[in-house]
Amino acid sequence: MSNADGRLRVAMIGHAFMGRAHSQAWRVAPRFFDLPREPVMQVLVGRSPDRAEEAARQLGWAEAQTDWRAVLERDDVDLVDICTPGDTHAEIAVAALEAGKHVLVEKPMANTLDQAERMTQAAERAAARQVWSMVGFTYRRVPAVALAQRLVAEGRIGEVRQVRCQYLQDWLADEQAPGSWRTDKALAGSGALGDIGAHIVDLTHFITGQRVAGVSGMLDTIVAERPVAQDVPVPGLGGVAGADRAPVTVDDVAMFTGRLESGAPCVFEATRMAWGRKNAIRVEVNGSTGSLAFDFEDMNVLHLYDASAPAAEQGFTRIYVTEADHPYVAAWWPPGHGLGYEHGFVHQVVDLVTAVADGEQPRPSFADGLTVQRVLDAVERSSQDEGRYTTTGTTRPVRHTEGES
Ligand code: SOE
């Protein structure tokens, strides 16, 4: 709970790539947005005392610790921000919620459906005590994506008929690229499927307001063994400590088709092998009266096709999403200056702190994260059953809501 003086004291667990992005967001959000609570960067938790001390100094945390369980017992911590590999998300999140701490957990929320279900149950219990939780799907907080959701909810492209998503990266396209915790099923749960496929499933849920009801999936591990990086905080992540090579036990490529609750067909591709594509998140939604298209590699732009326009004027409109009345943009720069990858994390902090202060459920909630986990689980099961169409178990009567799925 935030204390009487209006601060929200944060403990962040993990300080690698996500820890650095979250730290910048905690530092910057109160400087650009008028927040109802002042985030305080109280304590950074890491495995190595020396590395944690150095990270706390560099990233702006008041102190460094190595025992996350002891941090959960502190009265000067109100919120726990979990930036660790997925194998620890459930244990830490459930313990933090039961200790009365609000929780932000990185995506995917868990490595298994069972873990996600337990986390969601703990979150529901905690919410009854005004202790809140959120999953860190930050791409829904890119202004162009938030605008896409708004336009679909307003009916600007009519009824959603089809969705196609890609998340293309190439950081493992080189067979000699070292393994890491991200290539080890015991630590990451899955490969491209959970790491980046989770993002495009959440984006589909968010933008369309509908859940994926069933999938036919295929997973592929293209490079079966990799060198083990030695210059990492805990040598051996991604393999046996001390070994110089380790098997890859997760997918490099995840491809699946699906149907939304309305029956609309979708297609998804997530890969780490697409030479030349660095962080290409592409979403295209086709409706009954138009289309929307987004590519994160041109992240300040949203393309809108309005099929109701006079035939002579029809074509994709390139909306440069940098105007003050676009989502989140008014807090930043004048039109035309654009935002970057890190701003989605800042917007995440803004929305989380505001929801906590207002005593409202932040979105995406753990229940929202569970709907994504159900899709990932169904893709795994389908891929093990010759790609047979597999329901996600998340269907409900189709609702056309103003807001979230
Ligand atoms: C994968 O390399 C990754 O770091 C994801 O884990 C993040 O969620 C994504 O934002 C960038 O790429």
What does this structure look like?
With 405 residues, the chain is an alpha/beta fold. It has two domains: 7-138, Rossmann fold; 141-341 and 372-391, Dihydrodipicolinate Reductase, domain 2 (2-Layer Sandwich). It has helices spanning 17-32, 49-59, 68-72, 89-98, 113-127, 143-153, 185-188, 192-208, 341-358, 366-383; strands spanning 7-13, 38-45, 63-65, 79-82, 102-106, 133-136, 160-168, 212-220, 225-227, 245-247, 253-260, 265-271, 280-287, 290-295, 301-306, 316-320, 390-391. The strands form three sheets. Strands 16-15-14-13-7-12-11-8-17 form a nine-stranded mixed β-sheet, covered by helices on one side. Helix 1 links the parallel strand 1 and strand 2 (38-45). Residues 398-403 have low confidence and may be disordered. Alpha-L-sorbopyranose binds next to helix 8.
Task: Give a brief outline of the structure.
This protein is α/β, with parallel strands linked by helices and 405 residues long. It contains ten helices and 17 strands.
Chart the SSEs and their pairings:
Elements: E1 7-13, H1 17-32, E2 38-45, H2 49-59, E3 63-65, H3 68-72, E4 79-82, H4 89-98, E5 102-106, H5 113-127, E6 133-136, H6 143-153, E7 160-168, H7 185-188, H8 192-208, E8 212-220, E9 225-227, E10 245-247, E11 253-260, E12 265-271, E13 280-287, E14 290-295, E15 301-306, E16 316-320, H9 341-358, H10 366-383, E17 390-391
Helix pairs in contact: 1-9, 4-5, 5-10, 6-8, 8-10
